[in-house]
Specification:
With about 190 residues, this protein is α+β, with helices and mostly antiparallel strands. The protein is built from six helices and seven strands. It has a seven-stranded mixed beta sheet. Helix 1 crosses helix 3. The protein starts with about 20 loop residues before the first strand and ends with a strand.
């Protein structure tokens, strides 16, 4: 049934009731970096409101592009009725940074992911699960038996999210560009 006040001649996007319509694929040249940056700012707004300064929540388009190009970047895309796609999630697999990594990330049996964000209004619909599953699949393909991540220690809800998915605490870490201590979590995938 059409919504009251909807204009039938304009394309509309219906929210996904599950992740069935979402496509996960690698970043491609021409994908709108500014949309990825804006999505990350929205996805990390809760941590920013807590007084935290996660890089993904404040990075500019140049930093987003640099991070995307120095990793395997996967996008979650939701098709619209007008045949375009909306970026609704992002994750980096095996990001290469110009800063020191936790020793755990450097182990040959460990892969890691970063810059994980899902459109806030679509969280809880399986989009994040699809992105995490893609990283778990890639970890196995590259011979890793562990998939690790770094998360803001003060964000207890986020830690609960990961623990429910089988991640466990490994160690603490301090990144040079954040104002909080991070928790390194990992999950067996091999």
């Amino acid at each position: 049934m059409p919504q009251t006040g909807a204009c039938p001649s304009q394309p509309t996007e219906r929210p996904a009731t599950d992740a069935g319509r979402v496509v996960v694929r690698r970043f491609m040249t021409g994908d709108p970096v500014s949309e990825i940056t804006a999505l990350l700012h929205r996805a990390y707004a809760g941590q920013t409101a807590m007084g935290l300064r996660p890089l993904a929540g404040r990075q500019d388009d140049k930093t987003t592009l640099d991070r995307v190009l120095n990793s395997e970047c996967y996008l979650a895309l939701l098709p619209r009725e007008d045949a375009t796609e909306r970026i609704v999630g992002v994750i980096l697999f095996k990001e290469h940074e110009r800063v020191a990594f936790p020793d755990f990330f450097l182990r040959p049996d460990v892969a890691h992911f970063a810059m994980f964000g899902v459109e806030p209004g679509l969280q809880g619909m399986g989009i994040g699960r699809l992105l995490l599953e893609k990283c778990e699949e890639r970890a196995r393909e590259v011979g890793a038996t562990e998939l690790a991540l770094s998360m803001a220690e003060p964000d207890e809800a986020l830690r609960t999210y990961y623990e429910k998915r089988g991640y466990r605490f490994v160690c603490h870490w301090q990144w040079p560009y954040t104002n909080y201590r991070s928790c390194i979590l990992s999950k067996r995938v091999g």
